[in-house]
């Protein structure tokens, strides 16, 4: 599920963090649940203060879980786009796919292992705190934090994609068979089953308890089911595209804008006479660094004048919008499905210089053609027969 408008929260270990507005609901829910759990341990004011702090500590634990995935990924050469906090917790957005089963397994296990470790730390702290104040709110908050972290680790290890346990299943099957796509499809099918089961359990809980406590489980199950469906769809697409690379469908040697240009230079160049809507922006070494669309020159809050540098108007390229020329096309499409805001992918040579561009339309065309059993790009198809059937007059 793509999460768009987010509030930036800075960087940790070089990884961008952001929060979607729905994360506020999560903090509120955690506070409310914890305050109910702490009832009777202290005065109302102290309970609410402990509940807010406990909820924020839990959010920090969720972030630590995601950071663990992202840091292990970065160590194995996988670029990390960002970490987002939202209604159902956190999500690490990776810009590359793991290249081997062992990396896949390590990235997947890092999160639940961190949650377990945090659970153990919170339990130990609770044990120390219990010596001084056995029934106090601090001890109770620490026990709650420890329990939730352990539950999180166990829940995330349920064996279906897109949960961490699903990634573990994929990695293990991939390692055994050597066939990543089949492993991915199996993990997604198990994910569909897990999602449906959780939705059904949530529904049963509503029926049995006559309250809406099961609604959250239903929502979670439904989200997992939908996410597993799109994973299965993507696995099918990757299978059809086989080892077609992004370089095969790109537009080579595209017209690029130099980052140092002024608006006047841009408008005076021959770029104005092309039919393109978006242009890649390259630095002095020819490396793509940003994209410029006509709409960027019309931004209402920026005073666009002829001497303004193009680099001040262009939008920086996200890691997911840069792909090596030999990168599998299926991976690039998977990323754009997950991030519909990507309007151009800059394809680069191994030395980092711009080799070509691929637009969202090019990707959609490749998807449609592959679904019909045609080669992803028209020029890689065999020559048409000498005589084509013409209209019958
Ligand atoms: Zn995880």
Describe the structure.
The chain is of the alpha/beta class and 393 residues long. The protein folds into two domains: 6-157, no CATH class; 246-378, CBS-domain. 50% of the residues lie in helices and 14% in strands. The protein has helices at residues 23-37, 44-75, 101-132, 137-156, 164-177, 180-209, 215-241, 263-268, 329-338, 360-371, and strands at 7-12, 15-19, 80-86, 89-94, 251-252, 257-258, 278-282, 288-293, 315-316, 322-324, 344-348, 354-359. The strands form three sheets. The protein has a four-stranded mixed sheet. Strands 5-12-11-10 form a four-stranded mixed sheet. A four-stranded mixed sheet has the order 6-7-8-9, with no helix packed on it. The N and C termini lie far apart (51 Å). Bound molecules: zinc ion. Zinc ion (ZN) is lined by residues 65, 69, 111, 156, 164. Its cofactor is Zn(2+). It is a multi-pass membrane protein. Keywords: CBS domain, Cell membrane, Hydrolase, Membrane, Metal-binding, Metalloprotease, Protease, Repeat, Transmembrane, Transmembrane helix, Zinc.
Topology at a glance:
Layout: E1 7-12, E2 15-19, H1 23-37, H2 44-75, E3 80-86, E4 89-94, H3 101-132, H4 137-156, H5 164-177, H6 180-209, H7 215-241, E5 251-252, E6 257-258, H8 263-268, E7 278-282, E8 288-293, E9 315-316, E10 322-324, H9 329-338, E11 344-348, E12 354-359, H10 360-371
Parallel strand pairs: 2-3, 6-7, 10-11
Antiparallel strand pairs: 1-2, 3-4, 5-12, 7-8, 8-9, 11-12
The chain binds zinc ion.
The site of zinc ion has 5 residues, from α2.
């Amino acid at each position: 599920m793509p999460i768009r408008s987010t509030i930036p929260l800075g960087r940790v270990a070089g990884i961008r963090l952001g929060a979607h507005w729905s994360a506020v609901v999560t903090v509120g829910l955690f506070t409310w649940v914890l305050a109910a759990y702490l009832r009777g341990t202290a005065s109302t004011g102290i309970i609410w203060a402990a509940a807010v702090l406990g909820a924020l500590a839990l959010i920090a634990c969720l972030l630590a879980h995601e950071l663990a995935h992202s840091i292990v990924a970065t160590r194995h050469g996988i670029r990390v786009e960002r970490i987002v906090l939202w209604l159902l917790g956190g999500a690490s957005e990776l810009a590359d796919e793991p290249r081997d089963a062992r990396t896949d397994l390590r990235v997947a296990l890092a999160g639940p292992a961190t949650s377990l470790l945090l659970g153990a730390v919170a339990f130990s702290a609770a044990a120390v705190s219990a010596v001084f104040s056995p029934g106090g709110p601090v001890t109770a908050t620490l026990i709650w934090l420890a329990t939730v972290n352990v539950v999180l680790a166990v829940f995330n290890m349920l064996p279906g994609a897109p949960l961490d346990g699903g990634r573990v299943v994929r990695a293990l099957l991939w390692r055994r068979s050597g066939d990543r796509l089949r492993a991915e499809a199996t993990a997604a099918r198990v994910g569909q089953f897990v999602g449906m089961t959780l939705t059904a359990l949530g529904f049963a809980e509503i029926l049995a308890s006559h309250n809406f406590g099961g609604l959250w489980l239903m929502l979670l199950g439904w989200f997992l089911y939908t996410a597993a469906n799109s994973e299965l769809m993507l696995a099918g697409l990757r299978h059809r595209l086989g080892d077609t690379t992004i370089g095969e469908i790109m537009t080579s040697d595209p017209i690029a804008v130099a980052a140092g240009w002024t608006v006047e230079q841009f408008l005076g160049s021959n770029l104005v006479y092309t039919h393109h809507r978006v242009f890649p922006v390259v630095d002095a070494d020819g490396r793509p660094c940003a994209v410029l669309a006509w709409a960027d020159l019309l931004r209402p809050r920026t005073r666009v004048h002829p001497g303004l540098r193009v680099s001040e108007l262009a939008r920086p390229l996200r890691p997911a919008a840069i792909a090596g020329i030999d990168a599998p096309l299926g991976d690039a499409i998977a990323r754009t499905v997950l991030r519909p805001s990507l309007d151009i992918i800059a394809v680069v040579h191994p030395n980092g210089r711009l080799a070509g561009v691929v637009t969202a339309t090019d990707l959609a065309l490749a998807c449609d053609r592959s679904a019909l059993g045609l080669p992803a790009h028209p020029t890689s198809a065999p020559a048409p027969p000498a005589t084509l059937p013409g209209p019958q007059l």
